[in-house]
Write a structure and sequence with these properties.
The complex is a heterodimer of chains A (394) and B (660).
Chain A lengths: L31 H22 L11 H22 L2 H21 L5 E4 L2 E6 L5 E2 L1 H17 L10 E2 L1 H20 L3 H17 L1 E2 L1 H19 L6 H9 L8 H15 L12 H4 L11 H34 L3 H26 L16 H19 L4
Parallel strand pairs in A: 4-5
Antiparallel strand pairs in A: 1-2, 2-3
Chain B lengths: L7 H28 L1 H10 L2 E6 L6 E2 L5 E13 L1 H6 L3 H9 L6 H8 L10 E5 L3 H9 L7 E10 L7 H4 L2 E3 L2 H7 L12 H6 L6 E3 L2 H5 L1 H4 L4 E7 L5 E8 L6 E4 L3 H18 L17 E7 L5 E7 L13 H8 L9 H4 L9 H11 L9 E3 L2 E3 L9 E3 L7 E3 L1 H7 L2 H13 L1 H4 L3 H8 L21 H10 L11 H8 L9 H12 L3 E3 L4 E5 L10 E2 L4 E4 L4 H16 L18 E7 L8 E8 L6 E7 L5 H16 L15
Parallel strand pairs in B: 2-10
Antiparallel strand pairs in B: 1-8, 2-3, 3-4, 3-5, 6-7, 8-9, 10-18, 11-12, 11-23, 13-16, 14-15, 17-20, 18-19, 21-22, 22-23
The chains are: A mainly alpha (394), B alpha+beta (660).
Chain lengths: 394, 660
């Protein structure tokens, strides 16, 4: 059929004046599937946090401290998500240089005596009433926005910019500045997330294949250089290399990994039941409410629960990828790719480390691990995706 | 600006990458949870993790001003690995030669090594307190001493030596019985026990407080053991380890004891015993006094805090560190003078004339003594008015006739016949007064019951009355053949003889209760508990005074008795006046007592006192076993303590003749 009847063509931009009836109005296109999936993951996370911390004051006790705090973070996170989604990402793009500058400033400030140090990393601001803010979590969003703006085109054609060496160099410089500041803390895990975001955005933007190949070689060389530079603490090296051979490395690192694997493996098909995990309750698994929370999921809910959680993550990834495909312009598309890279890398690295197929680094499982900064950053990232998705017609 | 097409293809590649990452995770999950799941279930059940509990140092015991009485000392222990010795058996002889073959013969080392108390996984401590030069030698020649290491080990140290040995008490290995009593056995989680809760519970081979404050404050003093989880393979080789909890030192217990006053009390008690042994009992009995032991207790009358508690003979608590040898324990335990007994709370003595305090209070309250000024003619003998059968005559100590006395004078000179008369009239009028008025008053003053002091092993004592007599007869008909109570029993009860027996601490609390106007406090040995990092006790938890009961002591009752007590010390005819001749410290009021004991034991000497007489702060009870008259041998001991309390250097201990 060469022509379609006018009634069967959905116009991209309907010329209606009545806002209430505007089918392209942003609020009509909110991605509820994504919101429900994210909320479900956060709810499972809160339950698992409660399970791993409720008995911390002794056997038979029920301590809701961590549950209450995480609940508060989730509620604030939903607010942050709505706020980020409400401001048109094209307006955010105009603000990107300011947001990026703020990002660098915060990462710089945390290295000064304003920041405080925990477990060997100068990565936190201590706020009143015992809260701590980890700027490197929140600044992920600023970097995604800046890189997407720099590598994308804000025309609704969805076309990409031709990425010549100068543009590539500019993007790399924009990515390198926060990455170096984070390496100074030092927080290797978070730095790797920034690396993954950068690689993903550059790959999807109009960078030619041969440049990407050069970049890949460079990344490998830099990684090897970092491992042997002496800037890493011994425990960081141990954590990074233990997964290759658990009998090597320090006894502490090997212990964590072995016990985490025993926890997940002993969960079997259906798990030992919520609140019934022994490996995790008996404190054999370290940092079980933060970095190693997946070992609690694996032990208590088994393959069914773990696969369900991964399936929910799958829905989130799918909707994010879909938003990247449907985006009105390539800036929006690259924003979604950045978020996708961030969430996917963190999930794969975190879940992989608890099962011994990835090195142990301090990376949180998005929406599940306990922690305010991480939870807010993840909800903010989903806000960006919703933002791009619901403005795909406008 | 040149464009480079749409990102559709590249996004598809990204999608494939994401899907493959998910596939990797799910595959790994499948392997872990389904294919290898059963082996991991076994691993979790079998728990290839071995838990090592590291003992935490106990808290310190301090005096009321913070001076450390019991401390911890870190000594160097040499440890040996069981495995290495099995491989290279000539290590032990070499070690024995280095440490000194006399103190550490090879057989001893082998025995230590095979002691089942020590885990096979950790090095076994084989010698404690090894001098540093030998440790350095071992480290320099580590090839000659394979598997030999030196580790720091905390043990009890007593910077003030024997001071307050009965109060602080001893530590030692836990017995099965103690373990059964104290173990709380944390509930298992899904069939497994929380290793931290398990380590921190009482368990085999724990060192615990056995006596004194070490025992009664064990929960506070006991540290929280550190917990280390070791992952081992089948040959028990340690593959991995993780610290689950750091050891936490126990809390410091601050005694109410003043170390300086305690030292004076102990010294005075020993001097008093030495002096008594130079004296003859009476002219009729030519034996020297034995004075095998005694006690001196100082309490704060305003809150029941014990400022000093001396018991003689005493012992060296350091002897018990690291487990006392059978021989050394036998030497203490078989000693007939019982140096391990804390006589202040475990020694039972008839209160003798010091019991005239409750008799006088009851007499004035009930009107049996119509007026403190009423006079009684003390002829030296009291005759029960007829009809009387059996023993009808009761004599004063030494058969002295004191002549006409009122209540004040009867107390000052310790007239027995005056109080025999009060006792007899209470019994004759028992239908009006009740049959145990004197005894009930004595109980209100705290006699015949535990003072509630938090020290293990305190005994009750007994204030006898018709009811008590009946029960004693039912339980032990041989020792107490007569179930009935006669007037004669009431007469000797009035002066503190008969079946009534009390502890020195009870008597100190009795006189403190009278001195403070009728408030019976629970006796306290500790004032506060602090964390180990709080040397000033600024954030300590106070163990405040506890009032057990109060009794009315109106001035018309209290004043005449108090005047009698003051006279006993300060007036020329007082039974303790000789002992206090030339004394210039704070004004003291008190009562002597001389308790008759069944032959061949000599009399027990007692002196109970309080001061300053007009506004009392302290009460002291001194008891010397088999030491004759209280005024002669016990009062001089109390005088030295009063001198210390008055801020004067305690003088020489003199003994001046007294008749009570």
């Amino acid at each position: 059929m060469a022509t379609a009847s006018p009634s069967s063509v959905i116009p991209r931009r309907p010329a209606l004046t009545n806002v209430d009836q505007d089918p392209g109005a942003a609020w009509r296109h909110v991605d509820w599937v994504l919101i429900v999936a994210v909320a479900a993951i956060a709810a499972i996370g809160a339950l698992m946090i409660y399970s791993s911390t409720r008995g911390r004051r002794g056997p038979g006790t029920a301590d809701p401290y961590f549950l209450q705090r995480q609940g508060l973070y989730i509620v604030i996170g939903l607010g942050v998500m709505a706020f980020v989604a409400a401001i048109d990402y094209r307006r955010l793009r105009e603000l990107a240089p300011f947001i990026y500058a703020t990002t660098l400033f915060m990462l710089f400030a945390v290295l000064t005596p304003l920041g405080s140090s925990t477990r060997g990393a100068q990565a936190w601001f201590t706020l009143p009433s015992g809260f701590q803010l980890q700027p490197s979590e929140l600044t992920k969003l600023g970097v995604i926005l800046m890189l997407a703006s720099s590598c994308g085109l804000a025309t609704s054609s969805g076309q990409l910019v031709q990425m010549g060496p100068r543009r590539i160099a500019k993007a790399l410089a924009l990515a390198a500045a926060p990455l170096l500041l984070i390496m100074l803390q030092p927080d290797l895990g978070t730095a790797l997330v920034y690396g993954a975001v950068t690689v993903a955005i550059l790959s999807v933007s109009g960078t030619k294949g041969r440049y990407l190949l050069v970049l890949a070689v460079a990344v490998v060389a830099v990684s090897a250089g970092v491992l042997n530079s002496g800037r890493l603490q011994q425990y960081q090296k141990d954590r990074l290399t233990t997964f290759l051979d658990p009998t090597k490395g320090t006894r502490d690192a090997a212990f964590n990994l072995n016990q985490s694997k025993i926890a997940i493996g002993s969960g079997g098909l259906v798990g030992k039941g919520i609140f019934e995990g022994t490996q995790t309750k008996l404190r054999y698994v370290p940092e079980q409410h933060t970095d190693f929370i997946f070992s609690v999921v694996g032990e208590e809910t088994g393959l069914f629960g773990s696969a369900l959680l991964l399936a929910l993550f799958g829905i989130v990834m799918w909707r994010t990828w879909r938003a990247a495909v449907l985006a009105n312009d390539s800036v929006g598309s690259l924003i979604c790719v950045g978020v996708l890279a961030m969430l996917c890398f963190q999930m794969f690295e975190n879940v992989g480390m608890t099962m011994g197929i990835m090195p142990i680094t301090g990376i949180t499982l998005p929406f599940v691990s306990y922690g305010g900064s991480s939870t807010l950053a993840c909800f903010g990232a989903i806000g960006l995706v919703l933002n791009v998705h619901m403005r795909r017609y406008s | 600006m040149a464009t480079a097409g749409t990102p559709r293809l590249r996004l598809t590649i990204v999608g494939v990458v994401v899907i493959s990452l998910f596939a990797a995770l799910l595959t790994r999950l499948w392997f872990l949870q389904v294919l290898d799941g059963s082996s991991f279930v076994q691993a979790a059940k079998r728990n290839e993790v071995r838990i090592l509990c590291e003992p935490a140092p106990r808290g310190r015991i301090r005096d009321r001003n913070g001076a450390v009485i019991v401390d911890n000392e870190v000594t160097t222990a040499v440890t040996v690995s069981k495995k290495t010795v099995a491989d290279q058996p000539d290590t032990l002889p070499r070690l024995s030669a280095l440490l000194g073959a006399r103190d550490h013969p090879v057989a001893d080392l082998e025995k230590r090594l095979s002691d089942p108390r020590y885990s096979n996984l950790k090095p076994v401590p084989i010698a404690v307190g090894v001098p540093p030069e030998k440790v350095i030698f071992m480290k320099e020649n580590s090839n000659t001493f394979p598997g030999v290491e030196a580790i720091p080990l905390a043990s009890r140290r007593y910077p003030l030596g024997r001071l307050a040995s009965h109060v602080v008490g001893t530590v030692g290995p836990i017995t099965q019985r103690e373990l059964d009593l104290r173990r709380s056995a944390p509930p298992p989680v899904n069939g497994q026990v929380d290793p931290v809760a398990e380590c921190r519970d009482y368990k085999d081979n724990d060192e615990i407080g056995k006596t004194g404050v070490e025992a009664s404050f064990d929960a506070e003093l006991r540290g929280k053991p550190g917990v280390v989880a070791l992952e081992v393979d089948r040959s028990n080789k340690v593959l991995a380890e993780r610290r689950l909890a750091e050891p936490v030192q126990g809390n410091d217990v601050w005694l109410t004891i003043d170390a300086k006053l305690q030292a004076t009390a102990e010294e005075s008690l020993k001097l008093g015993m030495t002096r008594a042994r130079q004296l003859k009992f009476t002219n009729a009995d030519p034996r020297f006094l034995r004075a095998p032991g005694g006690a001196a207790v100082v309490v704060d009358v305003t809150d029941g805090g014990v400022l000093a508690m001396a018991s003689a003979p005493d012992f060296q608590p350091a002897d018990f560190v690291g487990g006392i040898s059978k021989l050394a324990f036998g030497a203490y335990n078989d000693n007939p003078d019982k140096p391990l007994t804390n006589r202040a709370i475990q020694g039972l003595y008839p209160p003798a004339s010091t019991f005239k305090l409750p008799t006088a209070v009851a007499g004035l309250v009930k009107g049996v003594i119509p007026s403190p000024d009423a006079r009684y003619n003390d002829t030296g003998v009291y005759k029960i008015p007829p009809p009387c059968s059996g023993k009808c005559d009761f004599q004063n100590a030494g058969r002295i006739a004191h002549g006409s006395v009122n209540l004040r004078e009867a107390i000052t000179v310790s007239s027995d016949t005056y109080f025999y008369d009060v006792g007899a009239r209470f019994w004759i009028g028992r239908s009006v007064y009740g049959q145990s008025m004197i005894q009930d008053t004595a109980r209100q003053l705290g006699l015949g019951q535990r003072t509630g002091i938090r020290l293990a092993g305190e005994v009750d004592g007994r204030v006898s009355d018709p009811e008590v007599r009946k029960r004693l007869n039912e339980k032990q008909p041989k020792a107490f053949p007569d179930p009935k109570w006669f007037i004669g029993d009431n007469i000797i009860t009035a002066i503190g003889q008969g079946e009534t027996v009390v502890t020195p601490l009870q008597m100190a609390m009795e006189y403190a209760t009278f001195a403070n106007g009728g408030t019976l406090y629970q006796a306290r040995i500790a004032g506060q508990v602090s964390t180990p990092d709080d040397p000033t006790g600024a954030a300590a938890v106070r163990l405040g005074p506890v009032t057990r009961s109060t009794m009315p002591l109106p001035p018309e009752v209290r004043d005449p008795i108090a005047q009698g007590f003051r006279g006993a010390v300060a007036s020329g005819s007082g039974t303790a006046s000789g002992a206090f001749a030339g004394y210039t410290g704070m004004a003291v009021a008190g009562k002597t007592g001389t308790a008759q004991q069944p032959a061949p034991q000599q009399d027990t000497a007692i002196f109970n006192s309080y001061g300053p007489a007009e506004a009392p702060r302290y009460a002291i009870s001194v008891v010397l076993e088999e030491a004759g008259f209280g005024g002669t041998t016990a009062a001089p001991v109390a005088r030295r303590i009063w001198e210390q309390l008055s801020g004067q250097p305690p003088g020489d201990l003199r003994a001046t003749a007294s008749a009570d």
